[in-house]
């Protein structure tokens, strides 16, 4: 049986988890980053040992890395004599926060880059973590925690049981910071606030809210940044000033946007989505194909003929009638959601209608597919 997507007459479609809140205020610290106070990325290449035969096969880079590691301890072994079954070559990644001092511990993620079956139970050997400037900012080492497992390999029939990704693990506090990354928060006696979601209206509202508390200090420079001058009484106490700024509440403006994730069947819409008057019609088509086997036998007491199997195929097509209906303009997404939920639409139907309405120009919002 071949079944095509079934649609009836609908308005627009969306999925909402909970009620939408319009006009709720948020703290500036939740909406912005202070320029100069961001995280930085680190990366490193290392070896995980102790994998009990689940490591890399005899890959050239893994074998060479083992030989190099042993040479550091005065053990010279020809690379062609090394077995790598218990070792896996891995990449280590981490984010080092701003103002992290030497001795601070940070979390790291360990990922296999070879053909190791799992890194569960392995131990990461001491590995330098490099920044984009190729300088060493941290050193990683420790036992790996994997959020999954691989078991049953080599059992009856070669059955294998796997959960999640056993070739990726984490080490909590697995890297020790060795070098601080310099950060400068105050420049020319001012602080730059960077909006996480750039928007001209949000930037203007934020500058106005800051000026209400600290008059004449804030200026919205563009959609993504607000410059705030440090008042004379806070000069030398910039940390206290930043803490005071972060507590100020602002009502950010949201862009009208609908995000569709076709892989998971998720639809998210902001409260500013509007629908223009539109007419929609959808029908459904179902094709049933049934194959049966019949038996053809010769007549009783016949001297000729043989029993034969005769295949038979029946095909039927059913199409529901569609309706062409004009949908009046709906002022808010809440009313759209209420109307569509009452129709009992599936998520797939909602996605199709959203895309069609965007093409027709009836959906007054950005439509993002991922």
Give the structure's gist in a few sentences.
This protein is an alpha+beta fold. It contains 6 helices and 24 strands.
Highlighted features:
370 residues, alpha+beta, Gyrase A, domain 2, 4-stranded antiparallel beta sheet, 24 strands, 36% strand, flat, disordered N terminus
Spatially, the strands of the biggest sheet line up as: 4-5-6-11-8-7
Number of domains: 3
Share of helix among residues? Answer: 10-25%
**What sequence of helices (H) and strands (E) makes up the elements?**
EEHEEHEEEEEEEEHEEHEEEEEEEEHHEE
Number of helices: 6
Q: Hey, roughly how much beta strand do the residues contain? A: 35-45%
Return residue spans where pLDDT drops below 50 for at least 5 consecutive residues. Answer: 1-22
Briefly note the structural class of the backbone.
alpha+beta
Sum up the overall morphology in one term.
flat
**Largest β sheet strand count, sense and barrel closure:** 6 strands, antiparallel, barrel
Mean pLDDT over all positions: 81
Structure description:
With 370 residues, the chain is of the alpha+beta class. It folds into 3 domains: 2-20 and 257-369, no CATH class; 26-36 and 184-250, Gyrase A, domain 2, CATH 3.30.1360; 40-177, no CATH class. The protein has helices at 28-31, 60-71, 200-213, 238-247, 333-343, 347-360; strands spanning 2-3, 26-27, 32-34, 40-49, 87-96, 105-112, 123-130, 136-143, 149-151, 161-163, 168-177, 190-195, 218-220, 225-229, 249-250, 257-261, 266-269, 274-275, 278-280, 284-296, 308-320, 325-327, 363-364, 366-369. It has a 6-stranded antiparallel beta barrel. A 4-stranded antiparallel beta sheet has the order 3-12-14-13. A 3-stranded antiparallel beta sheet has the order 1-20-21, with no helix packed on it. β7 (123-130) and β8 (136-143) form a beta hairpin. The longest helix is centred in the middle third of the chain and has 14 residues, at 200-213.
């Amino acid at each position: 049986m071949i079944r095509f997507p079934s649609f009836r007459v609908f308005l627009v479609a969306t999925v909402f988890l909970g009620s939408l809140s319009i006009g709720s205020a948020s703290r500036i610290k939740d909406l912005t980053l202070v320029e100069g106070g961001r995280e930085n990325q680190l990366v490193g290449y290392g070896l995980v040992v102790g994998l009990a035969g689940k490591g890399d096969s005899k890959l050239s880079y893994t074998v060479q890395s083992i030989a190099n590691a042993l040479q550091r301890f005065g053990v010279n072994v020809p690379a062609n004599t090394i077995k790598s079954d218990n070792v896996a070559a891995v990449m280590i990644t981490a984010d080092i926060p701003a103002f992290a001092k030497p001795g601070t511990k940070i979390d790291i993620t360990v990922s296999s880059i070879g053909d190791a079956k799992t890194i569960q139970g392995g131990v990461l050997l001491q590995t330098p973590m490099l920044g984009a400037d190729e300088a060493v900012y941290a050193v990683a080492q420790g036992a790996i925690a994997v959020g999954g497992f691989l078991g049953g390999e080599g059992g009856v029939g070669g059955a294998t049981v796997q959960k999640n990704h056993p070739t990726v693990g984490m080490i909590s506090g697995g890297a020790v910071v060795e070098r601080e990354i310099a950060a400068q928060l105050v420049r020319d006696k001012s602080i730059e606030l960077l909006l996480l979601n750039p928007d001209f209206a949000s930037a203007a509202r934020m500058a106005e809210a800051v000026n209400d508390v600290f008059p004449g200090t804030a200026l919205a420079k563009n959609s993504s940044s607000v410059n705030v001058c440090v008042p004379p009484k806070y000069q030398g106490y910039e940390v206290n000033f930043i803490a005071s700024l972060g507590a100020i509440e602002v009502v950010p403006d949201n862009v009208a946007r609908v995000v569709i994730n076709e892989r998971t069947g998720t639809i998210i819409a902001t409260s500013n989505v509007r629908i223009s008057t539109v007419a929609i019609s959808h029908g459904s088509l179902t094709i049933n194909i049934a194959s049966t086997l019949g038996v053809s036998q010769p007549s009783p007491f016949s001297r000729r003929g043989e029993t034969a199997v005769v295949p038979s195929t029946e095909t039927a097509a059913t199409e529901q009638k569609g309706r062409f209906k004009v949908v009046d303009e709906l002022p808010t997404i809440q009313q759209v959601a209420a109307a569509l939920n009452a129709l009992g639409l599936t998520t797939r139907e909602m996605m199709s209608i959203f895309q069609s309405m965007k093409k027709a120009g009836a959906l007054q919002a950005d439509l993002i597919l991922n």
